[in-house]
Specification:
mainly alpha, 80% helix, rod-shaped, 320 residues
């Protein structure tokens, strides 16, 4: 009885004086989780790039790629974090004379800490290893988008921005307007009309002034043998087409910005859910690993116990 009390007192003093955190087990579980997470993420990138096609009518759709990415990210977190938590729980020290609730809490904390360390390490490794691949895809997409935007702007006749120099060119052109036939060359006339269109399309109302409309109509009539009325009708038609093209380009740009904002928001939310699942499964797996750790039977303890039992049994007095 005295021996049991001594062992209990020794175990209590050891539990009170030592920390309940096994950092070696935590870092081991975090290393395993980070490595497995990196492998799974790279595999996911490979599968994703293989499913994407540059042709419009082939390959997986954007919605399918988004859903598959979310699912793969969640599975990566569950598998990698679960393995890391199990390793942290299985490799931690055995706490002697500890209440079951305290053991359960410590195992959960070990799994959570292993997940936290692995998340930080994996984020650094993923950012450095696959950052070039992601940046390459983003740059290619940005180049394509800028090319489309440039083509739309050029087709709309609004390639120039609303700068002070171009506005000055418009006002300078008004100083030298001449109603005489063929008063300016064709190139000069095209430049004047271009500046008028640019300034008007960038204005708030987007409406041609009466003077600009009359002047452009005169230039068109001088060079096309059209009557003044027909020239004005052509000016109204062409300017209407240019204005519509500019409005369509602005609408497309706004829709693209809204879509990008929604994609970023959904991505952040699902990443939060995936990381939360990883933290849960890491903590749960750590408790499972801790139970298996406490269930380990030491062979030398078993043999010594058997020898003591056998010795004690041989020294017993005979039964009468």
């Amino acid at each position: 009885m005295t021996l049991s009390s001594g062992k209990y007192a020794s175990g209590s003093q050891e539990s009170a004086s030592l920390s309940g955190v096994s950092w070696g087990a935590i870092f081991a579980g975090a290393a395993g989780a980070a490595a497995l997470s990196l492998i799974l993420v790279i595999l996911g990138f490979g599968l994703g790039f293989s499913a994407v096609s540059p042709w419009a009518d082939s390959g997986m759709s954007a919605k399918g790629i988004g859903v598959s990415t979310i699912v793969w990210l969640a599975l990566t977190q569950i598998i990698a974090s679960g393995m890391g938590g199990y390793i942290a729980g299985r490799l931690r020290v055995k706490w002697a004379n500890m209440h079951g609730d305290e053991v359960y809490f410590r195992d959960t904390a070990h799994g959570f800490l292993a997940w936290a360390v692995a998340t930080l390490v994996a984020a650094t490794l993923i950012a450095s290893s696959v950052g070039s691949m992601v940046s390459g895809g983003v740059q290619a997409g940005a180049s394509a988008a800028s090319g489309v935007a440039g083509a739309a702007t050029q087709a709309a006749g609004s390639a120039a921005s609303n700068s002070g120099g171009e506005d000055s060119g418009y006002f300078i052109d008004t100083l030298f307007r001449d109603d005489r036939a063929a008063s300016v060359s064709d190139d000069a006339a095209h430049g004047v009309v271009f500046r008028i269109f640019t300034k008007t399309l960038n204005s708030k109302d987007g409406q041609l002034s009466a003077d600009d409309r009359t002047y452009i109509s005169q230039l068109v009539a001088q060079r096309t043998n059209l009557s003044q009325a027909d020239a004005q009708a052509r000016v109204d038609q062409v300017y209407g087409q240019a204005r519509q093209a500019v409005n369509d380009a602005k609408t497309a740009a706004k829709n693209a910005a809204d879509t990008a904002a929604k994609v970023a928001a959904y991505t952040s939310l699902w990443m939060f859910v995936a990381l939360l699942c990883g933290a849960f499964f890491a903590s749960f797996a750590a408790t499972m690993g801790g139970r298996r750790r406490d269930a380990v039977v030491y062979l030398h303890d078993t043999s010594s116990t058997s020898n003591e039992t056998y010795t004690a049994a041989t020294n017993l007095p005979p039964v009468r």
